[in-house]
Write a structure and sequence with these properties.
single chain; two-stranded antiparallel sheet; 59% helix
Length: 208
């Protein structure tokens, strides 16, 4: 007559054991999920620190490092939601003493900044590094900044190849393509002061 209560106690104990084990498994699963999120947050290119790293770690010592450097920058360029933060950080490195860092900053700002933010690139039209000069001019000529035009004209006689261009592209070829795109043909040989930006045509034309 005392066996039935003992059986009930065993059943309750078994249920309690199962519940405890289940609770432990759920806890470990949630803890693992939390750790995974922390790792993703730490190493993904979605925060301001990573934007900074993409700029400051830009290196071209080997072709593989060059490709990885551009991939890090292109991550921000390909996602519109990351543009504001990327442009903000890039603008802080435009005057860096390191040529690679300045190039990375110009490249990132030129591809993520709005027209107003790109105006910060103007001083780099006179950069000591001609590679930085020409990419800066390429971003500015398309937003109505006519000081980029004479810089591009100065490259028309250069037979040197632009660094990082793939396939290889000469400075003269790139400059000519930009001038042809943004400067009205009849305006090319006129004084730069006579040019004005036509927002509708997206070209520089002669003032009437």
């Amino acid at each position: 007559m005392f066996k039935q209560p003992k059986k009930k106690i065993l059943i309750i104990a078994a249920i309690f054991f199962v519940l405890v084990i289940s609770a432990v498994i759920i806890f470990l699963f949630l803890k693992n999920q939390s750790s995974t999120k922390e790792v993703v947050k730490k190493y993904s290119f979605t925060d301001e620190i990573s934007v900074q790293q993409a700029i400051t770690q830009f290196t071209t010592t080997t072709k593989d490092e060059e490709n990885k450097s551009f991939q890090r920058l292109d991550y921000f360029i390909q996602q519109d939601s990351l543009h504001p933060g990327a442009a903000k950080f890039a603008s802080q490195y435009l005057q860096d003493n390191n040529d690679n860092i300045r190039f990375a900053a110009v490249y990132l700002l030129g591809n993520t900044g709005n027209d107003e933010e790109k105006i910060a690139l103007v001083p780099l039209l006179n950069d000591k590094n001609k590679n930085i000069q020409i990419i800066t001019a390429s971003y500015l000529i398309g937003i109505g900044e006519k000081t980029a035009v004479p810089i591009l004209i100065s490259f028309l006689g250069s037979s040197d190849v632009i660094k990082y261009s793939d396939p290889p592209l000469k400075y003269s070829e790139f400059a000519l393509s930009l001038i042809s795109q943004y400067v009205d043909y009849d305006s090319v040989n006129n004084n730069i002061n006579d040019l004005q930006w036509d927002a509708e045509l997206k070209k520089y034309i002669i003032k009437e």
